[in-house]
Amino acid sequence: MNTPFNGERLKKARIYRGLTVAELAERVGCQRQTLSMYEISKSQPTDKTVIARLAQELDFPVKYFYESSNVSASGTVYFRSLLTTNKKYRSEQIVKMDYLSQIYSLLQDYVVFPEFTPLDLPNNAMPEQAAYALRDAWGLGRDPIDNIISITEQHGILVTSFSTSTNDVDAFSQFIEVDNASTYIIAYSNNKTSAARIHFDIAHELGHICLHEWSEDIEEISKEQFKSREREANDFAAAFLLPEETFKKDAENGPQTITYYKQLKKKWKVSIAAMIRRAEKLGVMTTDEYQYLIRMMQRRGMRKEEPLDDVLTTASPALLKTSVIMLLQENVFTPIEFMDELSCSYGLSINAKEVEYLLDLPIGTLANPKIIAFPSLQIRRNNN
Question: 40 and 95 in contact (C-beta within 8 Å)?
Answer without folding.
Answer: no
